Amino acid sequence: MQNPPSAFSASPTSDNLIAKALPFLGPGALAVRASYRRQRFSRHAHDGYALGVIESGALAFRYRGSNLVAPAGSVNLVQPGVPHDGEPALPEGWRYRMLYLPPEALARVLPEGAALPSFRQGVIEDPGLAAMVAAAHRRILSPLASDLARETCVLALLATWIARYAAQPAPARDPGPEPRAVRMALDILAARFRENVTLGELAAAASLSPWHFARAVTRHTGLPPHAHLLANRLRAARAALSGPERLADIASDTGFADQSHLTRAFVRRFGLTPGAYRKIVQNVDA
Fold first, then answer.
1. Which terminus has fewer CB within 10 Å in the chain: N or C?
2. Helix boundaries (H) for 174-245
């Protein structure tokens, strides 16, 4: 099958991977079709939403404290900021179509000023919605589809997904001293991700003991402090891949020991190498 314009197919951990950047949905939006047999995604959280359909095999992942399996024909999704991982649930692995969506993509189908939706489920058994995800994804990757058709199809999918499965927002509450301290420390990690920040520094900024601080971060975010530091480094490296900087320099500039260190972390997080991702984002339709 011929790849669509500005799509890229390659990955050392998959049998087949096709990806296409979706600038009309906002920065970082991506459509991916991949099959994996051995890939195991490290525990992480996304800045945006992920919505996909399992075409064959089955995907296992831990999400919101439960061990889930998404079988063929099901819809799988993750909420921004909710930690999860991913691995084969069957010996043959899994094949899926995924949409990675920044929050502003969903905001486009909401009333002005409305809160972004929250979704509790990680797996949805809804053949109609699964068919919509697959149809929208196929249109995105089709070289014959117009940009207008792609955008219209995706927005219709998002509106249906939200209408059927978005949870009612919880009432706002005072975050309390511990969550405020955690937020402060996470802001430090975001600002100083290039540095070798110590647990003692973060705990002191949060006015907590190091052990109390480490437990608080894990309890309130689902990830330990060092995982947030790694996520910030990978986020910065991913953004830099749209430019001309050498991979070794990107690794150094974003806090990694060397290019190999960056590559290993990138593959565990995104399922493809930094070089493969660079080809995706640097071949977007004008």
1. C
2. 177-191, 199-205, 210-221, 225-240
